What we know:
Layout: E1 14-25, E2 28-39, E3 43-47, H1 54-62, E4 69-74, E5 77-78, H2 84-90, E6 92-95, H3 107-118, H4 122-127, H5 129-145, H6 161-173, E7 179-183, H7 191-202, E8 209-213, H8 217-223, E9 226-231, E10 234-240, H9 241-245, H10 248-253, E11 279-280
Helix pairs in contact: 3-5, 3-6, 5-6
This protein binds adenosine-5'-triphosphate (ATP).
Protein name: ABC transporter ATP-binding protein
InterPro entries: AAA+_ATPase (IPR003593), ABC_AA/LPS_Transport (IPR051120), ABC_transporter-like_ATP-bd (IPR003439), ABC_transporter-like_CS (IPR017871), P-loop_NTPase (IPR027417)
GO molecular function, one term: ATP binding
Amino acid sequence: MTPSAAPAAAPAATALELTGLTRRFGSLTAVDGVGLDLPVGARHALIGPNGAGKTTLLNLIAGTERPDEGTIAFLGRDVTRTAPARRSRLGIARSFQQPTAVPDLTVLDNVLLAAWQHHPDRRGAWRRTARRERLVATAGERLADVGLAGVADRPAGSLSHGQRRLLDLAAALVARPRALLLDEPAAGLTDRDVVRLLDVLGALDDDIAVLLVEHNTEVVARLARTVTVLVTGRVLASGPVREVFELPEVRSAYLDAATTSDTPPAGDGAGGGAAQGVAKAHDSGTGR
Ligand SMILES: Nc1ncnc2c1ncn2[C@@H]1O[C@H](COP(=O)(O)OP(=O)(O)OP(=O)(O)O)[C@@H](O)[C@H]1O
């Protein structure tokens, strides 16, 4: 009789778990005791006025800033002290407000570079023809996803700002990350590029958790199921987009001042997430 196989370990249900995250710059507390749980498959937006601490929070998760207090867990593993490159290889991908593609490399080579950096066998990946061809094919697919297949052989520096941001997205996605941190992905994009961005992000697999910093409330409404509002580094509210956007304190702190939309969006995000309670104005809030 063959012994029955041990049950497989249950996959982590939480992609990112932030607990009491605090980051100070001198006397300024840019991120102040933030708590946030992002389940696997989350589509979560981070909004707030300028200087609220949104980018700093992304930096803390990506590892380019270190917290003064608090912890960060990724898929159940404490990564608070893990170096950014290692976090990236573990599956935390990041896009920046400004494009980061290497201008002298071709569009395809930029995506290949990202694929190669994340490959578990970097030497072998490039030396073996079959693997190299697979990398090139995958890079080409990601470029096609973001509408850049037709310019794959052009230097990245010759692309428009919006195209370079889409190129960054292709590079972020090529290694199949499990958490995708996007810093204002729609900023500087043409209407056509925004449609492309929405299509690409809307088609992402459910095993990727997306955390999106975005000022454009229409983009938030289209992509996010849940949202956290940060004000002066603290969580003002966190929960389903529609419910949070209707809170008077959120309207007065942020939405009424937002230039992109006069009215709160009516949609409830890409997947129309399940109703969940709205966490309000605590020192640390939890958003799903
Ligand atoms: N490296 C730094 N040194 C000192 N202060 C910093 C540093 N990085 C950020 N800050 C300050 O921390 C606060 C939060 O900045 P952050 O960029 O995180 O805000 P934000 O919400 O992303 O703003 P925006 O919407 O304008 O991008 C700001 O007051 C900013 O000036």
